[in-house]
Amino acid sequence: MADPITNPTTDQSAADDPQAMIENARMKARQRFKDRLDSGLPVAGCECESENGASDGPSARVAGVRFLDSGQTYFFDPGTFEIENGDWVVVETNRGLEAGKVVIAPSQMLQASLSGNLKPVSRILGEPEIERMHALKREAAKAVKTFGAKIRERDLPMKPISAEYNFDGSHLTLNFTAPERVDFRDLARDLGASFRCRVELRQVGPRDEARLLGGVGRCGRTLCCASWLPVFPEVSMNMAKTQDLPLNPSKVSGVCGRLLCCLSYENDQYKQQKNLLPKLGQPVQTPMGDGMVISLQVLRELVTVRFQGETPDQTFTATELGFQAKTERPKNDGQRDAEGSGDGQPRRRRRRGRGRGQSAQTGETETQA
Prior knowledge:
By secondary structure, this protein is an alpha+beta fold. It has 8 helices and 13 strands.
């Protein structure tokens, strides 16, 4: 589609002013977006989302759905339903029919970006069903107490964590932690008779325990995994070393006892900045003479240099010392390390027992009872 005709005088002034160039590019982008809407072309999966600048391959109409026990978004086929953001729908998953909230309205998306078969939306929940679902959520707290009482009766090495009913109350999932595998077949039968529904016992790890229970992190804010973090990132001790943090595990661990997820947030930026800056103890040439690096402020790109004699220590920017960013060699497609995959994207682990829609649920592996 051709770009709208612009004034040559405006283009000439934009070439001289960087801010005007940005505004001119935004104006053209808005015009192209408006033209696509007017002509009925799909907006999602358009030219700006493909690597080669053109949308190639077939597309599908999908809706993004998020479940109560997960921050991950899954994609389903809305069919002929008129679905809007905020609607509650029933979708078909490998665990049966489940209810989820629509967070992305139906739109076109390239099929190449989806994996597996696209499962359909079964129906839209009505107001009475939504009220019943919220009532069952309140009943889940009582189910945890009953679960804990049954565990104490049998003196099993288990700790109840949470309970979750499905949208119609026909299925109850009970999460627990244990130091090792536990034979709970008799307990499951007793719980099924007590709740009069299908009961599933699921053993979870320390990270999922923190996500389900919630809490406050070392920063004083609500845990990321319990508030907004959709998946657990890959973290390693090398990330703490890259960010010059203490290598004592107790100082870089969260309430779950595992390494802090936030170690991965700025790791790439630290690696990029450290490619630009000199190393500690490295001799450097400065405008004030030769010296040695004694301190670095990575994010601010500041280098403190110590000189011989009585010259006091001085702080310089990396540009003043003549250090330029190094070009990183791309990793091979098959190469993988502890921090990601060869294509530059973080590795993802698939949770067992999930298999809901067109999205790979990642994080710490759960043990399906």
